[in-house]
Amino acid sequence: MGTMLASKVAVVTGAGRGIGKGVALLFAEEGAKVVAVDNGCDVDGRNTDPSHANQTVKEIIAAGGQAVAQTQGIETSAGGEAAIKKAIDSYGKLDILVNVHGILRDRMIYNMTEEEWDTVILFHLKGVFNTLKPASIIMRQQRGGRIINFTSVSGLWGNSGQGNYGAAHAGKVGLTRVAARDLGRYGVTVNAISPGAMTRMGASVPASASAARARVGVVPLGGTPPAGQREAPRPTEPTAGKNHPNDIAPMVAFLASDAASNVNGRVFHCSGGNVSLLSEPVILKTLYKNGRWTPEEIADMFPTTLGQGLINPAPALPPQQ
Predict the structure, then answer these.
(1) pLDDT at 244
(2) CATH assignment at residue 140
(3) Given 91, 110, 165, 186, the catalytic residue
(4) What is the helix (H) or strand (E) element at residue 173, kind and residue range?
């Protein structure tokens, strides 16, 4: 067993399967005491099965580590507080929080129901807040801690058919950056990871959704833009047989360690053997005038200035016969 996280206590949500389980197992291997949080729900958030979190705990203990399960969902404030309380009750402290949990309710935006929107925002974005708030109170008081939230390329670049999922994950990035500023002065770091891995969530995306994305001309990650268009490099899409969920865990362990004490408010993309630091928002071009622009002036200037080289991610469909 390693020692990078020796004596640390970590809460890992979504630890019953996939990326979250890989994080929990590696944390334990590196010496952390782990609270494996997972209600075992289906990909769409329905049904529950506590056996998954319990199985993660069994594997950790069998390997010589220490872990307890917490099988209450974190989509409510009570559930988030219970996850943090489990760490305090079981091990007397909290050093690390990792939010990996998630569900999918994919639908094209014009077909999405209010319930599909609300449910995904609740599980993902509010779920992170529900654990982050009570954890931040403890970490602020003890003047130290590590928080790692998981985001997605759907929120960073956009994926057709995932308006709810993408909005939630973009929100996680904003929350991460704000929390980093709120908590950094107290020795607490807050970072985010965008993973690329083959998981049951990725496998659940229906073929019809992929076909719809192709019809509107959306460029798949690592794909080829439509003729005449160029796109900036993007993270590669997971490929069957590659990009194992466990590949993400080493970067999470680093960010959770004392070695990453000065890494704060950053977003990383991890996939297979690749670990990438993503850029912060930057101003690319500016139109300046001493006074207010008219719409006509902007329309005249835009094509050769701000609009030069812009790529439409979903060109209009050709006229129907």
Answers:
(1) 86
(2) 3.40.50.720
(3) 165
(4) helix 163-183
